[in-house]
């Protein structure tokens, strides 16, 4: 069966089975929403207790649920915490904290990052999520917060601010994480900014390592690089890291005019807006000898042409397939037909051609790297150094409240967002954010004031008139 599936689809039987299950779940979700039997909302209902965002099954925004923990002895947990933890029946993303591994810590999450991978998890198209966790699942990889409890072998102190990586489970107010996946917040970064960088920066640095540019640049004379989707989270990191590593020229490709200037500010020597000009002619003009590396998360739209634009000894690094996927929340029957057509048109790379042209194609997915702790620690050390010496910055971080996870997914799917999207949990409001001047817009339109311990006073700011104090409405929460 495996051989037949590989011959027909290029994937083993288990992956094909998972994809068929995702198709069935998404079509059911789409049908129920169309028939009015399920309601879609861009805002989740907030429970009184600490909670986690779960995806109940593959589908649209209506499959999100903000689920209360019911107990202070419950937290989300990544799939790689396999010993000494008791997961809750019916949800592998949740675990009891009565006893937990000595090398782990419980973090009170204050902010977590939104990545496009999370959208794929919601659709049921992220293989590691299905293989290691299943549904319901708490998505999310990167977060920041405060250590609430520390195992005796964790070498961490309670109350310390940390940035962390978890293999699913970050969309939460409380997460259990191995201490080796927790790091000090780089100097100069706010808690919200800290949550934004681990996933995208780690992806960017691993891509550069695969292309031979890290830990030291190659000895070849050609150091030209081209970066697709350069205004996004990973793309923005790639532009800055390429500059730090001496790449030149750095050609950034974007899909809208409003994304050109942020790429120039990040260090790109050439920016191509493919919505207004043909992509490959100006790219060839910027690098007449071809590119030493091209970083492509677009998928079927650009992969073949990216490979053709490589120089001798050049590397095509693939880490996503955005153009294979729709920009809508729901995967309708028509969307599945378009995705199937995209898979059929995916390029195949001939080993003979790779040899004769001296080119390389590399791909990866960091969600399978849970055992590569030494590699991840080296990456985080380098990334922190770059943040502290100013080589890396996070110029644009758009924030949402935890209840607005569907709205954040809508923004990242639109293809119009720039930089990173971060959700702030209620823990953020309690503790504030060091290093970030207070801004009502950055604060996702909610300011919590504590007049006394029993009656926190919550002020909500109108979305339409964020600059006017007259738009406050007051609500008391018990």
TrEMBL record:
Pfam families: ADH_N, ADH_zinc_N. Residues 90-423 form the Enoyl reductase (ER) domain. One of its GO terms (molecular function) is oxidoreductase activity. It comes from the Eukaryota. Transmembrane segments: none annotated. GO terms for cellular component: mitochondrion. This is Enoyl reductase (ER) domain-containing protein. It comes from Prymnesium parvum.
């Amino acid at each position: 069966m495996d051989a037949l599936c590989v011959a027909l689809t290029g994937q083993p039987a288990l992956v094909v089975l998972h994809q068929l299950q995702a198709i069935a779940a998404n079509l059911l979700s789409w049908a129920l929403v169309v028939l009015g039997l399920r309601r879609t909302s861009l805002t989740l209902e907030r429970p009184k207790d600490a909670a986690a965002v779960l995806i109940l099954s593959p589908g649209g925004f209506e499959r999100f649920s903000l689920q209360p923990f019911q107990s202070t002895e419950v937290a989300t947990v990544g799939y790689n915490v396999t010993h000494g933890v008791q997961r809750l029946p019916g949800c592998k993303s949740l675990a009891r904290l009565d006893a937990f591994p000595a090398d782990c810590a419980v973090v009170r999450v204050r902010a977590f990052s939104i990545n496009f991978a999370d959208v794929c998890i919601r659709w049921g198209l992220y293989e590691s999520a299905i293989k290691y966790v299943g549904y319901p699942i708490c998505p999310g990889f990167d977060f920041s917060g405060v250590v609430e409890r520390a195992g005796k072998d964790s070498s961490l102190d309670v109350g310390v601010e940390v940035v962390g990586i978890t293999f699913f489970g970050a969309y939460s107010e409380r997460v259990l994480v191995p201490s080796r996946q927790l790091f000090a917040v780089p100097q100069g970064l706010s808690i919200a900014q800290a949550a934004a960088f681990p996933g995208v920066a780690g992806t960017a640095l691993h891509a550069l390592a695969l292309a031979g540019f890290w830990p030291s640049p190659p000895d070849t004379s050609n150091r030209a690089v081209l970066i697709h989707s350069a205004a996004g989270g990973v793309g923005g990191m790639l532009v800055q890291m390429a500059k730090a590593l001496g790449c030149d020229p750095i050609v950034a490709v974007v899909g809208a005019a409003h994304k050109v200037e942020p790429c120039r500010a990040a260090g790109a020597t050439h920016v191509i807006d493919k919505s207004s000009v043909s992509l490959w002619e100006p790219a060839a003009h910027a690098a007449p000898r071809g590119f030493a590396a091209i970083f492509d998360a677009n998928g079927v739209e650009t992969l073949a042409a990216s490979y053709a634009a490589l120089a001798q000894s050049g590397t095509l690094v693939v880490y996503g397939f955005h153009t294979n996927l729709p920009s809508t929340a729901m995967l309708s029957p028509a969307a599945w037909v378009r995705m199937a057509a995209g898979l059929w048109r995916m390029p195949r790379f001939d080993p003979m051609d790779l040899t004769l042209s001296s080119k390389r194609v590399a791909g990866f997915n960091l969600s399978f790297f849970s055992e590569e702790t030494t590699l991840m620690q080296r990456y985080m050390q380098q990334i922190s150094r770059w943040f502290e010496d100013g080589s890396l910055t996070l110029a644009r971080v758009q924030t949402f409240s935890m209840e607005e996870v569907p709205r954040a997914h809508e923004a990242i799917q639109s293809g119009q967002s720039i930089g990173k999207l971060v959700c702030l949990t209620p823990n953020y409001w309690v503790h504030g954010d060091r290093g970030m001047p207070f801004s009502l817009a950055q604060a996702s339109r909610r300011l919590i004031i504590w007049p006394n311990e029993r009656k926190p006073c919550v002020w909500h700011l109108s979305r339409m008139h964020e600059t006017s104090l007259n738009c406050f409405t007051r609500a008391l929460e018990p």
